[in-house]
Amino acid sequence: MFAHQHIISISSLLIHLLALPCQNFFSWFIDAMACLELSKEGKLKGEFREGSCTLDGTVDVHGRPAIRERSGRWVAGTIILLNQGLATLAFFGVGVNLVLFLTRVLQQSNAEAANNVSKWTGTVYIFSLVGAFLSDSYWGRYKTCAIFQMIFVIGLVGLSVASNLFLLRPKGCGDRTTQCGSHSSWEIGLFYLSIYMIALGNGGYQPNIATFGADQFDEEDTKEGRSKVAFFSYFYLALNIGSLFSNTILGYFEDEGIWALGFWVSTASAFAALVLFLGGTTRYRHFKPTGNPLSRFCQVLVAAAKKWRVEVPPGEESLYEESAKESSMNGCRKILHTHEFKFLDKAAFISSRDMNNQKTGHRDRWQLCPISQVEEVKCILRLLPIWLCTILYSVVFTQMASLFVEQGAAMKTTISNFQIPPASMSSFDILSVAAFIFLYRRIIAPLVSRIRKTDSRGLTELQRMGIGLVIAVMAMVSAGIVECYRLKYARKDCKHCDGSSSLSIFWQVPQYAFIGASEVFMYVGQLEFFNAQAPDRLKSFGSALCMTSISLGNYVSSLLVTMVMKISTEDHMPGWIPGNLNRGHLDRFYFLLAGLTSLDLVVYIACARWYKSIKLEGKYGEDSESDDFEV
């Protein structure tokens, strides 16, 4: 190690004396060569000088070790944040009023349109698993993001063309008063092909862009590690800023029947996002894909099952681990052995048959697995209880786009002669997200660090997710109280009950603000948690877990509403959520959700206290462990 450094120093001195005019070029060349040598040795500790390579194993676009000063960090991170904002604007430019498009343009019933939108939304998040799998296994995050963004743009172009040329007939139809004509089956087929291409493109792109943005910061470096944590907050902020424009300006034009303009603006935004993303190609840092994780997962289960009668002695001497030469980790940090799920350790136990196979130079991967591979499976199993506890939060979050809007429509929505679209109240959610991200990053986190007298990053991810559940309970209680007062000032005998209560829609602001605050703690914490705790091979899968939580939240919410209506409509009662909310008890449904979320919080605390954080072997021989995740 020291010999290499002395050679480099002497070479630098000779070049300085003999070729002063070429000093800059040769200095860069020597620094790059030193970076390659140090990367191969993998034992350097501490801070590198300017021009050195990253410590986390990332590479540049050419597959060479990434130079710290010439790649990643906030230059690449800012490009990705702008890309996320533009892509989100494009996606919600379609999704925010899709149910209205189906009813006004395609002449579907309210129930049919709502069902189709639910299926489409759920499909978006299911496709996130597809994108995560391809990214972690074969394509890598950059290639996956680029390909799925192209699919996203193609889908938006198809939707814009189909709407402009075929669906919006007669011209000017699709507003509140003018219904569109009938459409042929191929026109409707083109529409569905387009929106499901949008679902595929956005779904496959979303989990990877968050992880790819985090890849631009070397967590082995103290300063960049803090920036990586901050990135997730700004990423969620960019997402909300993009959706704010869609929910207000684009939503207004589409509600007025100017659908083609709304869709073309979304298309232009998605195209700009793609161009911006590709423009940063030379600046990005990359992790190489590491092969199919499903086969590795199954290998551990099969190998452990084959040895179910084997008694594994204490200690790690009898457990198999690949040598550095044999290892196929491809820059991934090895996970240190833990004592949970001991049954799976059988997969790494070296039996007499395994020893004979090793002597012949052959190893059956379905018979013997390295202990680091076993630990990958353990990591996923430990994450699942935490993930399951987040689904009920997503049920609460889903109400903002459904029952909150219906509740708002039954309130006083006018100020003078101006009518407030009930869906636009979600702007207060977005403003709350922005405010609480600022409060947490600038006030709460530093205050917690000062109180604890440590150089920590504030509250741990699990603690923040727990706080998110508490605030979600407050949001449901607030919504229930508002509904009680709305019913108090409502007319019961109305046929069309929009605006039938004299209670102003602005009384909904607290429940939207609570939801926004809870998102900052829950969803941002969730992104950070799954990214930090997922094995290096499965980082995109960790981000996909966040999206599948939202997807399942939609499905569970639909199931819960169906069950509540079936039970509450017995004995010829109108039910809690009838078509005429003035005859129902939406407040009871909100209080039910508050109670269920409270129970979920208790279970979550138990799971969080049980959870043991991942233990990693540092890139350069150091043992690293994530922050203490106890609640």
From TrEMBL:
Keywords: Membrane, Transmembrane, Transmembrane helix. It holds the Pfam family PTR2. CDD domains: MFS_NPF7. Its main location: membrane. The keyword Transmembrane helix applies. It is found in: Membrane. InterPro entries: MFS_trans_sf, POT_fam. SUPFAM superfamilies: MFS general substrate transporter. GO terms for cellular component: membrane. The chain crosses the membrane at residues 7-30, 74-102, 123-140, 146-168, 231-252, 258-278, 383-405, 425-444, 465-482, 512-532, 544-569, 589-611. It is a multi-pass membrane protein. The keyword Signal does not apply. Belongs to the major facilitator superfamily. Proton-dependent oligopeptide transporter (POT/PTR) (TC 2.A.17) family. This is Uncharacterized protein. It comes from Escallonia herrerae.
